[in-house]
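To assess whether ligand presence alters the predicted conformation, the chain was also submitted together with NDP. Input:
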Amino acid sequence: MKTVLITGSSRGIGLGLVKEYVKNGYKVVATCRDPETASDLKSTLAETNQPSAIALDVASDDSIFKAAEEVSKIVDSIDILINNAGVAAKNHPNDPAIGVDREDALRVYSTNVIGPLKVTEAFLPLLRKGNEKKVVNISSSSGSIAGATPSFVITTYCASKAALNMVTRYQAFELKDLIVVAIEPGWVNTDMGRSDCLGTPPLSISGAGRKLLRTISNLKESDSSWFLSINGDRYSF
Ligand code: NDP
């Protein structure tokens, strides 16, 4: 049985991924900041005989390494790590470059950029024991510098996802035995997706989960270090 570990599983795309991987016969190690209050996640895991969710705050190294210790007690290996947890700036989606709040930007970078770096580091021993050896960093089309437009001013969040794309490259250069990619999940109907105030996101959580699972299953060595669309095509940096 293949094992997948997902961060930020309490709601949104992370919870959608949990449900999709459970449906497809994987062992799912679901992690989130506060497993006690994540009621939908809790019932999904209990009803499908999956391990209980593990507490993991991607903005805290203590929490990340403690979670890695806990996880190593319940599984021998991890095939796929999905760094999904992410946050937007407090004034998202109106976040001009002039006037960025330093503390808030640090919170966003700590979660969206340093989080995936440290989570990957902490789970590397288990990933190296897995067969698939895949790390997926959930990025965003708004992290494409080529695609930046003056009509979409979300400085902090977009910069954090552009940085995540670069982080993905360097992880891939260093972790040559793994496939490391950044994937943009499309515009999905989640709390964050709806906060863009641009209308209703076209993609459902379950639809995004299905497409992501398929693309992640089809990843090959030559994809490593690239920024991909939800369908697996190369996306413009
Ligand atoms: P949501 O806001 O719906 O969910 C975010 C998830 O991340 C929650 O489970 C939240 O947990 C978790 N999270 C936030 N901070 C932390 C942390 N420090 N440690 C652990 N978990 C944390 O967002 P989405 O589901 O939409 O987003 C998931 C990913 O997809 C993000 O990386 C986002 O940037 C990306 N994305 C989303 C798009 C969309 O259209 N929705 C488009 C492009 C990219 P908690 O419940 O504890 O707050």
